[in-house]
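Query structure, 247 tokens:
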């Protein structure tokens, strides 16, 4: 498994707890605004917004709040300016970190992220120091119990599928970000519903961590993601099975 896939499984497990936090409303609201700003309010043409709406509903963000955030993103309603920023750095064990944030105050956010990295055994890096280790990919997760690899390939072959990875109980389907919308539509037309779909950063190589370093990394990522401005944290580590199997 890649570092991304292992973390993806952990995220799926902990999302139930995360969703209970009121601050998660802030994160999904920002993503709704950014998605609408980037691609408009039509979910048929904006897969990012469609995904953001699904995430917002999963944490029970009220319908009127969803609609309000979308209108703020498209400019129909006045709102504070939210910028997308990307920070690069290192975590315990020399792990490369990409930290996506959405903020209305860049100075505040960079100071908070730098402090959290330092406190958690990491360090902020210069722009470009680790980004080259990651590639943006469209990622779909399908349960093996429902679909076979051949079924997925049959639908995806003409719509940009690059590879299908065996990730335990799921198939992980990768494509280029430019093919994400077309592939999502193709799977939907074929009646093949994914457990998760997103455009994310996938590491080209990974670092193996021992249990101690893995625990430190997870604590650091938890601290970063507990910050209201941090949306996602990507890393290039393979975590020990002992940590992956913890409940």
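Result returned for the query:
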């Amino acid at each position: 498994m890649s570092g991304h896939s292992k973390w993806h499984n952990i995220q799926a497990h902990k999302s139930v707890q995360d969703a209970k936090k009121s601050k998660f409303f802030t994160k999904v609201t920002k993503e709704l605004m950014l998605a609408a700003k980037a691609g408009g309010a039509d979910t048929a043409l904006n897969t990012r917004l469609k995904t953001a709406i699904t995430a917002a509903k999963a944490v029970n963000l009220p319908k009127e709040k969803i609609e309000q955030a979308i209108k703020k993103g498209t400019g129909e309603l006045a709102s504070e300016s939210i910028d997308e920023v990307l920070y690069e750095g290192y975590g315990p064990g020399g792990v490369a970190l990409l930290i996506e944030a959405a903020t209305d105050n860049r100075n505040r956010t960079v100071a908070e992220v730098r402090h959290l990295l330092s406190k958690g055994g990491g360090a902020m890096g210069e722009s470009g120091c680790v980004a080259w280790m990651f590639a943006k990919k469209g990622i779909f997760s399908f349960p093996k119990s429902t679909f076979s690899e051949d079924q997925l390939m049959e639908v995806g072959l003409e719509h940009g599928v690059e590879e299908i990875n065996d990730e335990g109980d799921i198939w992980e389907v990768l494509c280029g970000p430019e093919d994400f919308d077309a592939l999502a539509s193709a799977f939907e037309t074929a009646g093949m519903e994914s457990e998760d779909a997103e455009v994310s950063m996938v590491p080209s190589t990974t670092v193996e961590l021992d249990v101690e370093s893995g625990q430190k990394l997870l604590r650091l990522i938890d601290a970063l993601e507990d910050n209201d401005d941090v949306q996602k944290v990507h890393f290039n580590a393979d975590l020990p099975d002992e940590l992956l199997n913890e409940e």
